[in-house]
Design goal:
The protein is an alpha/beta fold. The chain contains twelve helices and 18 strands. The chain has an eight-stranded parallel β-sheet with strand order 7-6-5-4-3-10-9-8. A five-stranded antiparallel β-sheet has the order 1-13-12-16-17, with no helix packed on it. The protein is globular and about 80 Å long.
């Protein structure tokens, strides 16, 4: 999990790269010819009625009833407080939209065997698709002594694997190699009781790498790219055919929570695309020839674009409409819009409902929860981008409710002292989308994204805006999914005041359909509606 000094990043963003390119041209407004066709009303999706929890260190999963994620999507629980509900019902998170659970949140001796060998005949109750693992830096650094995991500048000192017929001491240390650190992940099958007698393979459904040593000097880039390519290839070779492997970094492009016009002209990040080739010492350190010409991106099963929020994203009084201003929804959508153009790989975002630590105002501690509309909107709008999944993360593990506030000021607002009602709003968003419209996510749907066509002048002109343009024009955000004759629409006026109303029109005039509708928005509520379109 990245704790980025975003204030520094923001300061550097105004120099050189960010503003050296001209802004993208505005989309051409299409004038309506003749009179406005008849309109079709959208059927509003129900909202659950619940009172958000005010208890510290607590949230309820019963603000909604049972629903499951479509089989075409994945949502991993790596959040806080599963212990609040697991004694009552271990399976509840799987009936509240989550499809898998990260191993640190699994139930010992039932879902995951933590210590030693499991008893004879023991098997995990979890299906492979329900198993996920975040492999952090310490696996490589501490367990296998690879200093490179913490300091990428040591790439040229890192041993790939033991090389036969070598006599120097480094070659004789078999344990401290990238091969050993990567291949031993195959032992994950032991924790689920499903290892074969020979040729073990990891039986996690998802493996997420979170090493966070991707930044390095230009002169070290080839060494770094070689190691990343070899690492992911080795992990995949020691995992089952059903295991998907990806990493928080590299991504093809990281907007660091901003949504600038220049992001849409970004080139793929070097660590994703640089192809392995030998360096002066790589053969001696055991780099094999079979990765030559391959890149990390060639082997990764999914990419992970997505950034955590900082407090300004939650501040309704701040300015959010400038090209360089932060905006919760423009950032969420823009990151996906940019990266989907750079790669067709599946996308899985890390999501956290609290602000990450940064140098920006009120962001030094992770003490601010996403406001209700932001939390609910994350559970809805993200899936309108066509993304494959989410890793739902928190820096806390177990929660103990109703604890007195810490006497240490530095600990206030953290962990058990937080209000976790944001989890309830997030799950409510998932429930609204997938409980009522899960049938649309069957693999035959079309995500309109920037091709969503709206009118802001009563139907006289029609425009297709990307997330940055929606932000800078200060208009409502609208996104749509089409599946056959069904159209599903999400809309909101981000940061709007509670008494404010906004009206917008949407149309879909493709594939023989001539669909027009008007949407009325109240405050910054998340609108979700569906209609059956007619041909002609």
């Amino acid at each position: 999990m990245k704790l980025i000094a975003l204030g520094l990043v923001a300061g550097l963003a105004g120099v050189g790269y960010w503003f050296s390119r001209p802004a993208l041209t505005e989309p051409v407004a299409i004038k309506l010819q003749g009179q406005l066709p008849p309109q079709t009303s959208l059927a509003l999706t129900p909202r659950a009625r619940f009172t958000p929890s005010t208890r510290k260190g607590y949230y309820s999963l019963d603000v909604v009833d049972d629903f499951i994620l479509p089989a075409t999507k994945t949502l991993t629980f790596c959040g806080a407080g599963r212990n609040l509900h697991v004694q009552q019902d271990r399976t509840k998170i799987f009936r509240r939209g989550f499809s898998s659970v990260e191993q640190s949140r699994m139930v010992p001796s039932v879902e995951f065997w933590r210590d030693g060998f499991p008893g004879k005949g023991w098997k995990s109750v979890l299906k492979q698709s329900q198993r996920a693992w975040v492999v952090y830096q310490n696996h490589f650094r501490d367990a296998f002594g690879l200093a490179w995991a913490q300091n990428s500048e040591k790439a040229s000192e890192t041993i790939y694997r033991t090389v036969p017929n070598r006599t120097d001491a480094s070659a004789r240390v078999n344990h401290n190699t990238l091969f050993q650190a990567s291949s031993e992940l195959r032992g994950g099958c032991l924790s689920f009781g499903d290892c074969p007698e020979t040729d073990w393979k990891s039986t996690f459904g998802l493996i997420f790498l979170d090493i966070e040593n991707d930044g390095t000097s230009v002169t070290n880039r080839q060494e770094q790219a070689n190691l990343y390519t070899y690492m992911i290839k080795t992990i995949k070779e020691n995992s089952s055919a059903q295991t998907l492997v990806g990493s928080i970094a590299p991504v093809l492009h990281n907007s660091v929570g901003y949504s600038r016009a220049e992001d849409y002209k970004a080139e793929p990040e070097w660590l994703w695309t640089t192809r392995a080739q030998h360096t002066a010492t790589s053969r001696q350190r055991g780099m094999p020839d079979d990765i030559l010409g391959k890149s990390f991106g060639d082997y990764a099963d999914f990419q992970m674009p997505g950034t955590y929020y900082v407090y300004p994203d939650f501040d309704y009084s701040a300015k959010h409409t400038g090209d360089g201003d932060r905006h919760w929804l423009a950032a969420l959508l823009g990151e996906q819009e940019v990266n989907m153009k750079l790669s067709s790989k599946k996308r899985i975002a890390w999501q956290w409902l609290f602000n990450t630590q940064s140098e920006l105002p009120n962001s030094a501690k992770a003490e601010h929860a996403a406001p209700p509309a932001v939390a609910e909107g994350m559970g809805i709008f993200y899936w309108f981008t066509g993304a494959y999944g989410v890793l739902f993360w928190d820096d806390q593990l177990d929660l103990t409710p109703d604890q007195p506030s810490p006497t240490d000021p530095s600990q206030k607002g953290l962990g058990n002292d937080r209000n976790y009602a944001c989890y309830e709003h997030y799950v409510h968003g998932l429930w609204r989308l997938f409980k009522h419209h899960g049938d649309l996510f069957n693999g035959r749907e079309t995500y309109l994204n920037e091709a969503t066509e709206c009118s802001y002048d009563g139907g006289q002109t029609w425009l297709k805006y990307n997330a940055n343009q929606l932000k800078t024009h200060d208009v409502p955000f609208v996104r749509a999914i089409v599946n056959g004759d069904q159209i599903l629409v999400a809309a909101t006026k981000a940061y709007a005041r509670s008494g404010q109303t906004n009206q917008i029109m949407l149309r879909y005039v493709q594939n023989g359909y001539n669909f027009y509708t008007t949407i009325t928005l109240k405050g910054d509520e998340i609108y979700l509606g569906r209609a059956t379109m007619k041909k002609g």
